[in-house]
Amino acid sequence: MSETPSIKDRTRTAIMIAEQNLLIDRSAYERIVSRRETLIDKLRFGVFGLNAGSLLALIGALGGKGEAALWLGFDRQTAFTSAVAFALGMISASAAIVVESNKITVEAGDAFARASAAGRICAMHEMAATPEAYAKLGDELDAYAAMPLVGFRYHRLPLWLQCASQGLWLFGLALPILKAAGV
User: Fold this and answer.
1) Residue-range domain boundaries for the chain
2) Does the model's pTM come out above 0.70?
């Protein structure tokens, strides 16, 4: 009596593709998690720091008799408007960090689910080549194909928030220059 061959024995190409998908999905998951951590740090110390530093510099320039602020083109109203712009820029940058972090966390979960499914597909190729095993493998392949792709998604809201933060910083910085120029 001969032993029933495994699915892998009958579908060598399919197991090679499944193993390749497993490597790609695991790599994507690890890259996305690493990217999330790096991105959060860069954003946190980037645009937020730029607005915070500008706000502190403005406060410093307003100190004493306020001559430095006047020299830079800041009267009381201009200084207040710039300070509000810098504060709003800090808030916008913080919101971008939170929204992007949430998006990448969801994408990391999707990447983990894809890697897990790819692992199950590879393991299922060890099952005996029976109609039931093929049906289970087919169901697993359908579920895998229906999973969202990862690594190519983006979310507009954090981009808009980051752009708003940069724009608010630029506005707060340009306001005294424009006012001095009579614009």
Assistant:
1) 7-180
2) no
